[in-house]
Design brief:
By secondary structure, this protein is mostly helical. It is built from six helices and two strands. The chain has helices at about 1-25, 25-45, 65-75, 85-95, 105-110, 125-145, and strands at about 55, 125. It has a two-stranded antiparallel ribbon. It is elongated, with a radius of gyration of 21 Å. It starts with a helix and ends with a helix.
């Protein structure tokens, strides 16, 4: 009888723990996955983008990822052609500009680290710019999960 009660208590506790973790989705991960989809969609229009060279952070130091991401956000991707593709590019670019949700690590971090300015990054064509943006997003997801 005691074993049955003990098993039921373990099952009940496991159920409660599972429900509490499911109640609040990880907004940061959801947003980062959306950003990867946006970058993939922009890659479809890379030939329609202005070939202007853009600052594209690479090999970003730990804890400077958000700063580097903000550099990507400050860049205005422009369409060379007017029309439907221009509208789609503008919509996707605006979606890139949305603020990232805070993470627990950022809430705990009290001191601000010195990160390179956006102007210090090497300028690259739009295709490489988008590749580096996607790479940074994937790095941020990996760090968030570890």
């Amino acid at each position: 009888m005691e074993r049955i009660v003990l098993c039921l208590m373990v099952i009940f506790a496991g159920t409660l723990a599972n429900k509490s973790s499911l109640q609040r989705p990880d907004r940061f991960l959801i947003r980062m996955r959306q950003l990867i989809e946006i970058v993939d969609q922009l890659n479809n229009y890379v030939n329609d983008l202005d070939p202007e060279f853009l600052p594209a952070p690479e090999d970003v130091k730990r804890h400077c990822e958000r700063s580097a991401f903000s550099c990507f956000q400050k860049v205005q991707l422009k369409s060379v052609n007017a029309g439907d593709n221009e509208k789609k590019i503008n919509v996707l670019t605006k979606q890139l500009m949305r603020k990232l949700p805070p993470t627990n690590a950022e809430r705990r971090q009290k001191q601000r680290l010195t990160c390179p300015s956006c102007d210090s990054y090497e300028k690259k064509p739009p295709k490489e710019f988008l590749e580096r943006l996607k790479s940074l997003i994937q790095k941020m997801i990996h760090q968030h999960l570890s």
